[in-house]
Specification:
alpha+beta; PH-domain like; 2 domains; three-stranded antiparallel beta sheet; about 35% helix; transmembrane helix
Amino acid sequence: MPETQNDSAFDATKITRPAPVLLTYYVLVSVPSLFLALPLLWFRFLTLRYTFDHEGVSMRWGLLFRKEILLTYRRIQDIHLTRNLVQRWFGLATVGIQTASGSAGPEMSIEGILEAEPLRDFLYQQMRGARGETELPNDASGKPVSLGHGTNTTELLREIRDHLARINRLPEDQQ
């Protein structure tokens, strides 16, 4: 399996194309159809482009009939990471992005991603940031309260309780 970068070095804005191994995956997927689907999958691979910017994510593909999907981070409701047996063998994954559109499937499926977990984390971070959910309270010294990664609800509530207790003990001139 290919190595993945650590989370601090991951930059989703540099993802513009699927990994080249996706073409090999498409060849294997087209075997049951006696390679009839291969030309369509090959053109999809050649034209598939991703763009991650500060407003959202877009995906476009197509040779004769161009298709483009643009999702702002505010519209994202849920993100799913899927891998079948062959995708795991190649180190690939599909990141499915769902919105409140009412459809059963994902609104956008980002295929051919080698660094799926960091991409999913990036999308969750952008999704929460677009809704204003990432701001942390400050402690008495003005520093943001660290909630830690993977904090469970009980620990989070205790930290909020302790933070409020510290605020209530401060003299009025420091509040």
